[in-house]
């Protein structure tokens, strides 16, 4: 089991929690016709968020996944610990982290979501925060 967070295109998300959760369920059916590893399918804001996010939390798959075999062993171990399983959609990016990184991942994703003007959803929390870039919570 992983610690899951999501960012989303604020212009595409519904305004109420009930509608948002239905939209979220539809998004995570993964029925879009692409591979979910290609960042170019997302909005410019999500692309910018992703490119900055992977500096600290690189993807385990796709074009931006690091080749750990080419790195110094200590560097590779630290990098491997920070690998994230990203699922990239048109309007969302879903990120699955190791639970040991929960606090660090939450802070980084939330901070970059605000910076890049995308929404943030704490998927793993029982009633996870759904926060717009201006700090407004969807209720």
Q: Overview of this structure, please?
A:
Helices cover 32% and strands 15% of the residues. The chain is α+β, with helices and mostly antiparallel strands and 139 residues long. The protein has a 5-stranded antiparallel β-sheet, covered by helices on one side. It is globular. The two termini are 27 Å apart.
Q: What is this structure, in a nutshell?
A:
This protein is of the alpha+beta class and 139 residues long.
- Cα gyration radius (Å): 15 Å
List unreliable stretches of 5+ residues. none
Strand order of the largest sheet: 2-3-1-4-5
Tell me the series of helices and strands, N- to C-terminal: EHHHEEHEE
Number of continuous helical runs: 4
Distance between the termini: 27 Å
Average pLDDT figure: 94
Number of strands: 5
Structural class: alpha+beta
The shape is globular
The fraction of residues in strands falls at 15-25%
Biggest sheet features: 5 strands, antiparallel
* Helix content estimate: 25-40%
